[in-house]
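Action item from last week, closing it out:
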Amino acid sequence: MRNKKVMMKLIKDFALNNDNIRLMVMNGSRVNPNAPEDKMQDYDVACFLNNISEKPFLNDRNWINYFGEIAMVQQNFFEDDSYIFLIQFKDGVRIDICFVDLANYLESLEEDSLSKVIIDKDNLVVNNIEATEDSYFVKKPNAHKIFKNFNNLWWIQLNIAKGLWRNEIPYAKFMYDEVMMKQIRDITSWYISSNNSWEINVGKAGKWFHKLLDKDLYNEFLSLYTDSKIDNIWEGLFKSQEYIRKIGGYLESKISYFSYPYQDDKNVSELVLKIKNDNI
């Protein structure tokens, strides 16, 4: 795998040798001072173009080969006419390179606090930009959001239980993995952030939970993930109830306008057990 020095020279030279690119900004973990540095980090780059309407770099894609031997490419569009290439190279290096209208550079820099100017041909960015995690902090949920989250965490368990009772494993796993676990990650993020003055970045999908939770609670969180065996999903569901109850009670003590739904907890826990035992 090519090292950082080699890749950064390639990336900078790409901008310097293309007149349409007026400003180049690097985003993501490689400019995050708090992110663990390793060779698997992507190079996230935004190129701000003088004339994006001509769709340079989109119609002729031979430029991609400049960066190395390609394993796979994915290309996506955004609503503001910008577009991105996600490029995986055979040596393990990955570059995500986005092309944006130069007119939108200020908005882009304001939206993503993890931004570092790499090339600025026209001295557009007068003040030095310090890459920070501000826009990635887990925000304190408002009253509506936290209520809806806990309300749904108990409601969704009825869907999971019915799916298990009917032996509809794909449905039950979808509700468990895609819906319930996503919201469990949310409340776990709130738990962490509430202990850090609501100024903490937990990483995408909680990838840094292992650094931010104590070992016992992290292992308890991990134990909620299950395989596709019915008995194990039931066990995970009951563990989830305990976990939701624990985190919810804690958040109630930290957020003045939140009242944990104890009655929903009690009613759904009892009903889920009845469904499991076919006692309804």
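Closing note: Residues 70 and 89 are 4 Å apart (CA to CA).
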